[in-house]
Amino acid sequence: xxxxxxxxxxxxxxxxxxxxxxxxxxxxxxxxxxxxxxxxxxxxxxxxxxxxxxxxxxxxxxxxxxxxxxxxxxxxxxxxxxxxxxxxxxxxxxxxxxxxxxxxxxxxxxxxxxxxxxxxxxxxxxxxxxxxxxxxxxxxxxxxxxxxxxxxxxxxxxxxxxxxxxxxxxxxxxxxxxxxxxxxxxxxxxxxxxxxxxxxxxxxxxxxxxxxxxxxxxxxxxxxxxxxxxxxxxxxxxxxxxxxxxxxxxxxxxxxxxxxxxxxxxxxxxxx
Length: 272
Hints:
By secondary structure, the protein is of the alpha/beta class. The protein has a single domain, classed as Decaprenyl diphosphate synthase-like (Undecaprenyl pyrophosphate synthetase). Helix content is 37%, strand content 13%. It has 8 helices and 7 strands; from the N terminus they run βααβααβαβααββαβ. The chain has helices at 26-32, 37-58, 77-93, 95-100, 116-129, 145-161, 172-176, 224-235; strands spanning 18-22, 62-69, 104-108, 136-143, 189-192, 211-214, 264-265. The chain has a 7-stranded parallel sheet, with helices on both faces. α1 (26-32) packs across α2. The longest helix has 22 residues, at 37-58. The two termini are 38 Å apart.
């Protein structure tokens, strides 16, 4: 089945190729409606479907979703079981949509910590979509950036001890090769829903020069128009990567990083 045609939005500057999202606010969204937290998680799954499909059809190259952190194992057992079941059901039910849109699934994190049924469904879906050549959807599961770095350094230390790695040759690219997925590109844009101004142990190595965008919208309310608003904000940024702006020009240029005090954009609070 042919994929739907790519339709990139008309932006005033560059388009973000790799988007990473901290999907926050499911529980608060549910509680504001007098519902249990799991009600918000179920609604959040629908947003995952909508945003993944929108990104695929707009030609985004890579989308990384912070789905379940290593710290999330500390939540009540009933909530964790529900989240793992929702993961399994999502992977099963959305296979047709992933295939229709040419989406390739990859996962990063301490995946062996996942329940057997969830891990088996995940691996099957990765295998099914492995030859798709559109959007790469990465789910960060049982993920923590500090864990990723620590696990990578432990693997590098073992290779040094075994004589497979010369410690004097180690540089940033060497260390990148020991991350969970060395092919994960650095994100251009990190979006956080729910209003909190922090990264929460997400892609700390890869996020060095990512643009940050925070919205007060909770994840279930984050739709395609909110996604486009984040793209428009990104297109107005000045991205200097530690350098200087063009000589004689303090004016911002589309796609470049703004001064530090403007590095996080917060839209008006949601009225919902």
